[in-house]
Amino acid sequence: MNNTQLDIYVNYPGNCQEAFRFYEEHLNGKITMMMTHAQAPDQNSMLPADWKNAILHARIAIGNTTLMGADIPGAEPMRSAYLTLRFDTAAAAEQAYALLSDGGQIFMKMEETFFASRFAMLRDKFGTSWMLLHETKK
Known about the structure:
Blueprint: E1 8-12, H1 16-26, E2 30-36, E3 55-62, E4 65-71, E5 83-86, H2 90-101, E6 105-111, E7 116-123, E8 129-135
Parallel strand pairs: 1-4, 5-8
Antiparallel strand pairs: 2-3, 3-4, 6-7, 7-8
Protein name: VOC family protein
InterPro entries: Glyas_Bleomycin-R_OHBP_Dase, Glyas_Fos-R_dOase_dom, PhnB-like
Organism: Chitinophaga silvisoli
């Protein structure tokens, strides 16, 4: 299993493009692919007509990680998995916390813990769950 890479795939209820554009702008991401259902070579006849501009598949690189996603009718927010962002500085962790928590739901506010100078858990306004971390130097 040489050169194996684990990527993450997130389903959105219709706001995948908005989420990925936000992550690209604010998390130094780079969108490498984004296709709507209308752009697909074989159209899904089961898809509601108002979902033609919804995202069929998107890919963004954030650091060394690839996040992929799509719009899926009825998709619910992430419940049991978190995307974890590790930062080089406490200030960068605080900045991401301010951006991602705006309009979202905070599970654990940004604070110092025994394992990190800054740590927080939240779900952003797009339904993606995040852990933000600036580790304590040992």
